[in-house]
Amino acid sequence: MKKVLLTFFAVLAMLNVRADEYPYMIFQTTDGTIHAMAVESLNMEINNGQLVATNNEETQTFTLTDLNRMFFCDDTTGIDEVFSAD
Question: Fewer CB atoms < 10 Å away: N or C end of the chain?
Answer without folding.
Answer: C
